[in-house]
């Protein structure tokens, strides 16, 4: 099957459309001259104090039994957003919600959450709690960010989240390789590890001072 039959060059696509495609992820990415690799990323962890961790854990544990996770709004407001708000506290990052991007007719749409310090980090919510299809959309959005942002950041990083499960991904801008992390982080069980990874990615660049 040719790439042209997977993505129609004369058709308009938004990021969410790639979630709906039934083609193999590597074939979808190949249309954009990118490859896919799956491996354990072994991401570095922030080693400082997490003074809000106990409170965040308690709030999530209290909310979970009462939340209907079939609601996309509930997952965003009560599970994803609280984690990201704490990341802002520790990193002084800025957060854009529903951030619009328009690179081309095939690379456009809104990014759920875009966090920025000296690094750029993308988070998207997995619709219907489907991590695999959600990761394809994450990969496409990272490929779009490569052309959208002006930075020398060699690796663009992101995560896909159902609210209770997070999975990381990376896009190597030079080799055009997307890496899908084999490790999953569960909330609240792995909340501390998740926070330490997110903070480490976005923590202020002290070398630049």
How many helices does DSSP assign? Answer: 7
Which strands sit side by side, in order, in the main sheet? 1-7-6-5-4-3-2
Determine the fraction of residues in helical runs and give it as a percent range: 25-40%
- Low-confidence runs of at least 5 consecutive residues: none
How confident overall, as mean pLDDT?
92
Main pleated-sheet profile: 7 strands, mixed
Overall 3D form: globular
Number of strands: 7
Taking Cα atoms only, what radius of gyration do you get, to the nearest Å? 17 Å
Percent strand equals 25-35%
Indicate the structural class: alpha/beta
N- to C-terminal distance: 51 Å
- What is the N-to-C succession of helices and strands? HHHEHHEEEHEEEH
Describe the overall structure.
This protein is an alpha/beta fold. It has helices at 3-6, 15-20, 25-31, 53-63, 72-91, 131-148, 191-202; strands at residues 35-39, 94-102, 108-116, 120-125, 155-161, 165-172, 177-186. Strands 1-7-6-5-4-3-2 form a seven-stranded mixed β-sheet, with helices on both faces. Helix 5 (72-91) packs across helix 7 (191-202). The longest helix is centred in the middle third of the chain and has 20 residues, at 72-91.
Write the layout of secondary structure elements.
Layout: H1 3-6, H2 15-20, H3 25-31, E1 35-39, H4 53-63, H5 72-91, E2 94-102, E3 108-116, E4 120-125, H6 131-148, E5 155-161, E6 165-172, E7 177-186, H7 191-202
Parallel strand pairs: 1-7, 4-5
Antiparallel strand pairs: 2-3, 3-4, 5-6, 6-7
Helix pairs in contact: 5-7
């Amino acid at each position: 099957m040719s790439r042209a039959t997977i993505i129609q060059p004369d058709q308009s696509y938004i990021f969410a459309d790639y979630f709906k495609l039934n083609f193999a992820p590597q074939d979808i990415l190949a249309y954009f001259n990118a490859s896919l690799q799956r491996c354990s990323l072994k991401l570095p962890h922030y080693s400082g104090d997490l003074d809000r961790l106990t409170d965040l854990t308690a709030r999530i544990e209290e909310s979970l039994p009462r939340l209907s996770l079939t609601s996309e709004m509930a997952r965003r407001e009560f599970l994803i957003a609280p984690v990201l708000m704490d990341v802002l506290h520790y990193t002084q990052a800025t957060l854009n919600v529903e951030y619009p991007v328009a690179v081309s007719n095939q690379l456009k749409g809104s990014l759920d959450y875009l966090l920025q310090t000296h690094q750029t980090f993308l988070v998207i919510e997995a619709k219907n709690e489907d991590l695999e299809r959600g990761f394809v959309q994450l990969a496409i959005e990272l490929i779009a960010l490569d052309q959208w942002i002006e930075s020398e950041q060699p690796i663009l990083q992101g995560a896909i989240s159902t609210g209770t499960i997070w999975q990381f991904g990376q896009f190597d801008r030079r080799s055009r390789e997307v890496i899908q992390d084999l490790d999953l982080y569960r909330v609240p069980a792995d909340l501390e590890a998740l926070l330490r990874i997110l903070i480490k990615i976005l923590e202020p660049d002290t070398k630049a001072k």
